[in-house]
Structures are given as structure tokens and as C-alpha cells.
Amino acid sequence: MSLDPALRKRLHELLAEYGVKVRRLVESHGLAQHGIDPADIEQEVRIRLWKALERDRNAAFHTSYIQRVVLTTVIDAIRAAKARPAEPLPDEVELGDTFLVDHGAGPERNAGAGQDFRRITACLAELPQRRREAVVLHLQGFSFREIGQFTGTSEEAARKLLDRGMTTLRERLAAFGFGEFHDE
Amino acid sequence: MNESNKKNLTRLYRDHARNDAALPDADSLVSLALGNRSAKTDDVIEQVAASPLNGKLLHLTCDLQPLSIDLSMDLEALLGRSYTSVRHRQTRGRRALGARPRWRVAVAAMAASLIAVAGLWTAHRLNQSAETPMAASIHTQAIPDHIFSGFDEKTVAAHNDNRGDEIFRGRFLPDEIFKSNRNDG
User: Fold this and answer.
1) Portion 145-184 of A in contact with B at CB < 8 A
2) How close is the nearest chain B Cα to the Cα of A118, in Å?
3) What is the ipTM of this complex?
4) pLDDT for res B145
5) What is the mean pLDDT of residues A150-158?
């Protein structure tokens, strides 16, 4: 691609800025613990976007296209990490994201947590599909607005689906003798 | 049960859900984040449900959107291209984030119109009822009622000519049929 040097420099700067933001996002979502290096992702995203610019300068760089480039890079890296021979993973316990699988807690306590999880999944499986979707998305940390957007309903409808789903889940878990729980 | 003793369902779920579920593809993740539902995005929801890693990927997709919009716009400006379609899609994407379903907007608009009409009608009625007693008395004094103004009871009483009711004073013409002078012969 024959580009004016000033334009070329500015494009590099833009992609570098974007790459840094992507790296921060990858780090903040805890994806590094799945065997990928955020710095590698940053570099790879910059390279892929630059190559796309070189291939077709007149191509439209839609938002969704740019998102796909990043996600493909991340997913490829995760697949590659999974395919690698087992390496010692970084500690699961991170600041601000304390895991319930507490290695210092002893096998009895962790076994109890595992049993609780199996009960939860069994109860979730009994929920109607839309309520189950709302509940699992909520458990994965998505907001009412996001749940509504993903499931094709309004924020208010998502809230109602979640309320009903959680009520049913509580009742079913209580029947298992699960006891009280909070979901925040 | 003490609040601190309650089990944290969210943490329990995220910590024990397995991360070996199939990874979703990038296209489906982007479609789901944009709110374009299809059979493929339904599968992604199931994949997200099955694995916290997939949940993180969906979070990443959502958070990437504003950054990618900015980069797309900057590239457009820098390369001097007219990205009409880009702009259109991006506006749609932004709108989709906080969008309400169309039927809700329509119902809200209809409800607002009904309320406005009811309000206007009520205001009009109140205006009328506030004006009526006073206005009626003013009108009675200022402009006599035309129907009854031509009939002055006092004059009628003074002018008693014992004519009686005009109906029974009628000078009825005899029936012409039976007074016919026609010569039938």
C-alpha cells in the first residue's frame, strides 16, 4: 500500500492505541488465566488490522468487522493454549475475584461446594428456557439491559423473567435442603 | 441465617461451571451482543450458560463495541472515505444497546395521545362549568331569550278579548271533495 508517510504513521498510532485498549480489556476480564498473554493479543490484533488495511485500503472497517478481528484473535489464542501440553496455570485466586474453590479449605468443604453446584445445575435444567437463560446470564454477571438485549426482550421483561426464575430456583433448592443464598 | 453464612450463588456457579465447553464463534458473539437473535445466538447463550469463559468472551464483545466504533470512525476520517453504511450500522448498534421494542414505543405513544386528549377534554369541560353559572346569569339579563321575549304575559293578560283558543276558532273550509260541482253525467 503506497501511503503518505504521515498518514501511515497516524494509522499505526491509531491501531497501537486500539491495541492497548484491547489488552486492558482482556486483562480486566480475567482472560489471562485461560493461558493467553494479553500482550500477544494486543500485538496480534494490530498486525491483523494492519494487514486488512494493506489488503484493501478501500474496504469499509465496520465496527462489527473490527470486533470480529479481536474476538477471533482471542478465541484462536485460547484454543492454542488449550491444545498446548498442560502447564502449571497461574493461581486461580486473584485480587478482587476470590474463588470459592479454596485450596486451603480442605477437600470436605470443596466437595460440598461441588455438590451444591450440581444441585444448582439440576434445578436450573428444570426451569423454562427463557427463565433459565435470564438466570444463567445473570449468574454470569450480565445486567438486565444486556439480558434483555441478548434474549430479545425489554429490560423490564428481562427483570421479570429473572425474578420468576430466581424464585423458582430458590424453591427448588430449598426442597433439596440447600438453605438460603444470595446472588450478588 | 446470618447474611455472611448465606451461600453466594453467583460465585458458586462461576467457580464450578466447567470451562471446557465449546468456544463460541466470533460472528455469533457479535450478533448476540448486537441483539440479533437467531438459532446460532441461541446456541451461544447455551454456551455462555455452560462456561464462565464463554461468559467472559461475551462481556469482552460488549465492551469492545464502543472502542471499535471509535476506531472505525477514526479510520473513516483518516482515510477520507464516506462510510455512510458504517455510520448507519453504528447508529443502529448504539441504538440497539438502549432500544425498546417498537410495540412498546407505539403503545406508549398511543397512551400519551389518549392522555393528552383526555386532559384537553377535561380542561375544556372545567372551563365550561366554571363559566356557565355566571355567564348564564349575565346572558339572561343582557339579552332576553328570543323564544320567550316575544311573548309578554302581562300584555296578554291585560288584553283579554275572550277570543279563546285560535285552534277552535278556525274557519275551516268545507271539504271540497264533497262539494264538488263536477258534472259526472
Assistant:
1) 145-146, 149-154, 178-184
2) 9
3) 0.80
4) 54
5) 91
Model pLDDT for residues B62-92, shown as the tens digit of each residue: 999 999 999 999 998 888 765 444 444 445 5
Q: Which residues from B are below 8 Å from A31, CB to CB? A: 53, 56-57, 60
Phi-psi region of B96 (alpha: psi -120 to 50; beta: other; left: phi over 0): alpha
Counts of helices then strands in chain B (DSSP H, E):
8, 1
pLDDT at residue number A56: 80
Cβ–Cβ contact A26 with B under 8 A = yes
Q: What are phi and psi of A97, to 5 degrees?
A: -145, 65
Residue of A nearest to B11 (CA): A100
Residue entry with cell 430449598: A174
Chain A stretch 100-119, residues whose beta carbon is closer than 8 A to a beta carbon of chain B: 100-101, 113-114, 116-117
Please provide the DSSP assignment of B91-140 as one string: HHHHHHHT---HHHHHHHHHHHHHHHHHHHHHHHHHHHHHHHHHHHHHHH
Residue type, A53: L
- Tell me whether residues A120 and B83 touch, CB distance under 8 A: no
CA separation, residue B165 to residues A119, B157, B170 (Å)? 102, 14, 9
Residues 6+ apart with CB under 8 A from B59: A29, A140, A141, A142
Q: Is the pLDDT of residue A78 over 90?
A: yes
Answer yes or no: is pLDDT of A15 > 90.
Answer: yes
A60 touching chain B per CB within 8 A = yes
